Amino acid sequence: MSSPDVRQILLTGGSGQVGAEIIRLAPAQFQIVAPSRAQLDLSDAAAISRLVASQPWAAVINCAAYTAVDKAESDVVTAWAANAMGPAAFAQATAQAQIPLIHISTDYVFDGSKDGFYVEDDPVAPIGVYGASKEGGEQAVRTANPRHVILRTAWVVSPHGANFVKTMLRLAESRPELRVVADQRGCPTSATDIAQTVLTVLARMVADPEAPTGAYHFVNEGEASWCEFAREIFRMAGERGLPTPVVHAIPTSEYPTPARRPANSRLDAGKLRRDYGITPRPWRVAVEEIVATLAASRQKQEP
Ligand SMILES: NC(=O)c1ccc[n+]([C@@H]2O[C@H](COP(=O)([O-])OP(=O)(O)OC[C@H]3O[C@@H](n4cnc5c(N)ncnc54)[C@H](OP(=O)(O)O)[C@@H]3O)[C@@H](O)[C@H]2O)c1
């Protein structure tokens, strides 16, 4: 039996990049309960209400989402069910239970036309189904449960799951040259660092009913285009004996995708620093850790 000081936290998306890191890094004071999608689907509002009401959770963290940005363009109903209806059900159920809700959101709520880093109260204007559905989720959370933190992040990478670092290293194995988009800018961000941030916010929200609430941005420090990001990944990979293809810069127009992406995805994390004392690491430091982990696991696999 767990000690009465151990608080139970309900987490969705435990098999995803961010959720898996939260489970790995959670301190002993939190027992993280992470039902799989098969056990709790975001589209099942009744199941969400039942589970939240079923026991005295200290908080809910909603990391799960329909994250297939291109597929969402033709799978609108499913994307909205997961990214807007699911969070709405969590927001209502957590409000009823009077517990905090930490909800992860995205830079894709913005259209990317701003000249500079986005702050939390910049107007949202999503340009695709994924962004619009995530914005729907934000609105629902904001409306139903005043004790919420909406944590927007961007360009998430980790040694697990589907992400840009893994895609680049995989392509490098078979291609001597790559063409990578150079006119979209953002802030590469480690899932590990997002998880640490979520756990810091969680500890404060659980301990203090007056803890700051609202929307926050968290990304690693610095910025890059996808092309610059790729070149940095290969510089780090090269130092570890991995293949290093030549990277050619191309405009977005030469890499058409079903969903449009914001040209500017840069987020300003100053509010989180001011309210929660969280200072992000530079993205190169965080990404180097990921490349090192992936390089080491590749060496282990080699005969
Ligand atoms: N990845 C990025 O670059 C990025 C950028 C900005 C914001 N975000 C946000 O950050 C959060 C975490 O992203 P991530 O990269 O960790 O995601 P991820 O690796 O794609 O994982 C998504 C998670 O959501 C679960 N899921 C998907 N649909 C579900 C449903 N209908 N019901 C229940 N669970 C469902 C998945 O379960 P299965 O394993 O069963 O599929 C998985 O655990 C999301 O809110 C995302 O919108 C991500």
From TrEMBL:
GO terms for molecular function: dTDP-4-dehydrorhamnose reductase activity. InterPro entries: dTDP_dehydrorham_reduct, NAD(P)-bd_dom_sf, RmlD-like-bd. Its EC number is 1.1.1.133. It comes from the Bacteria. The keyword Oxidoreductase applies. Residues 8-294 form the RmlD-like substrate binding domain. Coiled coil: none annotated. Binds 1 Mg(2+) ion per monomer. It is an enzyme of class 1 (oxidoreductase). It holds the Pfam family RmlD_sub_bind. Keywords: NADP, Oxidoreductase. It catalyses: dTDP-beta-L-rhamnose + NADP(+) = dTDP-4-dehydro-beta-L-rhamnose + NADPH + H(+). Pathway: Carbohydrate biosynthesis; dTDP-L-rhamnose biosynthesis. Its cofactor is Mg(2+). Catalyzes the reduction of dTDP-6-deoxy-L-lyxo-4-hexulose to yield dTDP-L-rhamnose. PANTHER family: DTDP-4-DEHYDRORHAMNOSE REDUCTASE, METHIONINE ADENOSYLTRANSFERASE 2 SUBUNIT BETA. Belongs to the dTDP-4-dehydrorhamnose reductase family. This is dTDP-4-dehydrorhamnose reductase.
